[in-house]
Design brief:
By secondary structure, the chain is an alpha+beta fold. 40% of the residues lie in helices and 26% in strands. Strands 3-2-1-4-5 form a five-stranded antiparallel sheet.
Length: 184
Amino acid sequence: MNENLLSTTITVESIEDKGKSIKLKCSDRKSYSFWKTKQDGNNTSMYEQFTNMAIQAGTTVNISYKVEEFTLPDGKQAHANKVIWFREAGGTPLVEKPVYEAKNAPTGQSNEQFGFRLAIHGMVNGLLATGVSPRNTIELLPDLWLLEKAIEEKLSKPADMTIAEAKIEQNKKEIEEIGESIPF
């Protein structure tokens, strides 16, 4: 299997629902596909992007994809272009799942879990924005998880909040002193 990610801009000519997957036939005379559901029956992030972006025939989007090679039952080699990411045309396709703004945590997930995931997504977006490759970003996910866990532990301790509050009070006093020394 070829693990290299490729990026291109496509214009969808037709969409074929294959049941568990979607196949896009595009103006570049290639087909691209992705899974609709995970093994647990929930929608994949690709399918959610596809529906949220309202992709239909005539839509132009950027994609990141990989070429998966396989052997047919007759022994011939074949390949499939598997979409990893959709992005509005004109933007740079990414590999990681995007951060969508949401008022509440998704059903079945606590607000803490949702907040934790948002924090991780924010760190991922920061890494990608600074030029860290998607592959290296994926390798850093365990470290990001540990970092967010440490941050959460540190912020939940009352002593740390007391230190922060003390610094705020100190800054307020300094601002008042400066204000008193200014003649009007």
